[in-house]
From TrEMBL:
Gene3D superfamilies: DsbA-like domain (1.10.1200.90), Glutaredoxin (3.40.30.10). This is Thioredoxin-like fold domain-containing protein. It comes from the Bacteria. InterPro entries: Thioredoxin-like_fold (IPR012336), Thioredoxin-like_sf (IPR036249). It holds the Pfam family Thioredoxin_4. Residues 9-153 form the Thioredoxin-like fold domain.
């Protein structure tokens, strides 16, 4: 089954596509563990991205779990076609997660519109279906699920600790 070892291009890309390492994170913007995963973005991931050693791809996963439903709502507003605008917003939404998660669904829609100029994106349902299929293929039963591909090889699940070690070896080179 070759489908299980490939990932589509669907997602939010940070860094260059031909980086030797590609980190794909199946995530949900309402997940506190996902937010914590990016706490060290500036110190651990960003240097590798800026040095063209790492491409980060975030795949917002609409997971049918009560605590993640507000994230699923936010995902509808993310603009896949304007990643230069959307990528920094995603990182900010992780930082402000505790704040916006307290809002009602209608308040979240207003918050996204007023603070970030985001509107619901009609194509996002198709993107969501693609990402859900990939999450199932990689047995991503929880978020975040990190998949690391080295030099174009098939992606494999990694823990945050394994990722940290991998990034440390890059920094030494």
């Amino acid at each position: 089954m070759t489908d299980a070892i490939t990932l589509s291009d669907t997602g939010f890309h940070f860094g260059v596509k031909d980086a030797p390492l590609k980190l794909t994170v199946i995530t949900n913007l309402a997940c506190p563990h996902c937010s914590a995963f990016f706490d060290n973005y500036e110190t651990e991931l960003l240097p590798a991205i800026e040095n063209k050693q790492l491409e980060l791809v975030l795949k917002p996963f609409d997971k049918p779990k009560e605590g993640l439903l507000k994230g699923n709502l936010v995902h509808l507003f993310l603009d896949y076609k304007d990643q230069a605008k959307t990528n920094p917003i995603i990182l900010q939404l992780f930082k402000d997660q505790a704040e916006w998660k307290q809002l009602t669904d209608n308040e979240i829609k207003t918050y996204l519109s007023e603070n970030y100029g985001l509107t619901a994106q009609p194509d996002n349902t198709d993107y969501s279906l693609t990402i859900t299929q990939e999450a199932v293929s990689f047995d991503a039963t929880s978020v975040p699920t990190a998949l690391l591909s080295r030099k174009g090889a098939a992606p494999v699940k990694v823990t945050q600790e394994e990722l940290k070690k991998e990034l440390e070896t890059l920094a030494v080179k």
